[in-house]
């Protein structure tokens, strides 16, 4: 793995359309730590795949992608989030699309902030709507609450199947568009996406966040907070492909590689590559 970089990320920063960076931080993880190792493991896994995406007719050797490597993570979550914001905002100001490889889900907040006013779509098993958790406002269990209240123009969650009673009440009282994993199964992912796209019709820019625990642990066992009865990888891939045209920032978070034999990192890397291909195809249309 040349220079410990993501496969096919061969462009310079100046020439790139997509810029990846890793954040090896899991300082607020509440169950199983280890997501700090995920950027490295996804990079390793990325070398498993062919460059050509036959479904989308895109060859990643033709796509300008740059990998900045990992940014420094600090003991303090607040200091780490500040560092993430500095990097992500620099990418956005340079006119490029940031792709963040976490690390835990708290890291999403500064990436969304860097992208400006956006609609926020998150695939997640958990609501993440607490005001604070473990005495921390910037805990991974609070990220969606603060994005809703501070940053997002519109908000949609897909794959939910866990939360406190108060979080479910918050969703109902605020009229938040939230699809549970059961909704996805009952309605079908196409119907879920049609409703999502209709809701986001007036929103030209989307930030898309993938907490890998949205996926059932039968497919993705290496997770910080696994939750059974989740989405399938194909359902997640369909969300990525359908929303890619409007997406201006993307992340994959909460893989904990120490709990499997590379299965979840392989899936995470593949979904990143699929996002890049889908977004690039939409840009060439």
Automatic annotation (TrEMBL):
Q: Does the keyword Transferase apply?
A: no
Q: Which EC numbers characterise this protein's activity in its record?
A: 3.5.3.11
Which is one GO molecular function term here? Answer: agmatinase activity
Can the keyword Electron transport be found in this entry's annotation?
Answer: no
One Pfam family of this chain: Arginase
Q: What binding details are noted for the cofactor?
A: Binds 2 manganese ions per subunit.
Binding positions (Mn(2+) 2):
124, 126
Binding of Mn(2+) 1, residues = 105, 128, 211, 213
- Give the UniProt record's GO annotations in the biological process aspect: putrescine biosynthetic process from arginine, via agmatine
Sorted alphabetically, which keywords does the UniProt record give?
Hydrolase, Manganese, Metal-binding
> Required co-factor?
Mn(2+)
Q: Which NCBIfam families match?
A: agmatinase (TIGR01230)
Which family would the database say this protein is a member of?
A: Belongs to the arginase family. Agmatinase subfamily.
Protein name as it appears in the record: Agmatinase
